[in-house]
Fold Lipoprotein Spr.
Amino acid sequence: MRKVLLIFICIISVNTVSGQSINKTLAPLNKEISDPDSLGSTYYSQLFGFNVASKANLKLFEFVYNWMGTPYRFGGDSRKGIDCSRFVNKVYDYVYDVFLGGASSRDIYKNVIPVGKDELKEGDFVFFKIKSRVITHIGIYLGGGKFAHSASSKGVSVGNLDDPYFKRYFFTGGRIEQQ
């Protein structure tokens, strides 16, 4: 009986000592990751494959992620299918609380301040003239040369402005004037 009691006391004391050292080891780590924005930006950086700034609007990245894979449907306005301008309208309504009125890419362009590719900021519009003289496609700039859009080939996805296809047809960026 004494042997069992002695073994039991040894096990408890070893677990207590090792538990304290683990807690001391984890304490600095817990301080480093206590900022939820930092965790969110790290999470979305891994999901999207580019560095998402710690000051990024995580609501934008969450919205895009939740819609990824939704098929393209011309005139569509739901998860069953959505086109590029309706997707942009939904992003602005949900993320920025700005109602664009269901406007087409050309209508949106009429109401923005043009912005060069090198001046794009997260949330800006990106406009394309794909095999046309008029604007035919729109997306939302995410940063790092990436943008979210609904493409006829992939549905809601993230594209790269440096991709040869998008590089060829990129027209301009655009920003809504701050009120």
Summary: Residues 88 and 139 are 6 Å apart (CA to CA).
